[in-house]
Write a structure and sequence with these properties.
mainly beta, disordered N terminus, about 200 residues, about 50% strand, four-stranded antiparallel sheet
């Protein structure tokens, strides 16, 4: 099967931007990525830990992971991965080992999945505060037996009004991770008039 090189666009807003972030949740996973190397490795495990003083209920859902030409992640349900258990409840400060099995064969180009570990809502008597539920999407990679070096590059840069568009192409058989992408603008005298950057992301094979 012919592998189509992946093109991903990264957009940068050419202006000074504010940034707000929020964090919520009460569990952790370790490790944060899973790797299969069939036929040598077809079962892996990770640990889920409840770091809060309340119990937590979780649901685990595997999906295929692809990207369109704009770098948008596309997820679809899959039966390629078997997860046990798919539902679990952790007591305060409790932990549980989860096992994941890959049902497929060896691959020539890396296959990519996400395993979503989603906190389920639990109502408690007298609770009136709004709680933000955590949903972690763990990257899962099925690696080819022979791994080549990274083959990628920037294949296009364009400016559309207030946004710069950078096209990144991955010609390799495995994913790459792009670091920060920055845009710097100068005036006719060479003085910097703006600077903005965005965090990089995965570019799949």
């Amino acid at each position: 099967m012919v592998s189509v090189p992946k093109l991903v666009a990264v957009w940068l807003t050419v202006a000074a931007l504010g940034c707000a972030s929020a964090w919520a949740g009460q569990f952790q996973v370790s490790p944060i990525k899973l790797y299969f190397d069939p036929p040598r490795t077809k079962i892996v495990a990770f640990k889920v830990t409840n770091v809060d003083t309340d119990s937590v209920s979780l649901q685990l859902s595997p999906v295929t992971w692809a990207q369109d030409g704009e770098g948008k992640d596309i997820y679809k349900p899959t039966e390629d991965l078997l997860v046990f258990p798919k539902l679990l409840k952790l007591d305060p400060k409790g932990e549980r080992v989860v096992r994941v099995a890959y049902k497929g064969d060896a691959v020539h180009t890396e296959r990519t999945y996400r395993l979503f570990v989603e906190e389920l809502p639990v109502s408690r008597p007298g609770q009136v505060a709004v709680k933000f539920l955590l949903n972690i999407g763990m990257p899962v990679f099925v690696q080819p037996p022979q791994r080549s070096g990274e083959k990628w590059g920037i294949v296009g840069v364009s400016l559309d009004h207030s946004r710069a568009r950078v096209m990144i192409r991955n010609d390799g058989a495995q994913h790459i991770i792009i670091g920060d992408v920055s845009a710097v603008g100068t005036d006719a005298g060479g003085a910097q008039v703006f600077h903005n950057s965005v965090n990089g992301w995965y570019v799949l094979a």
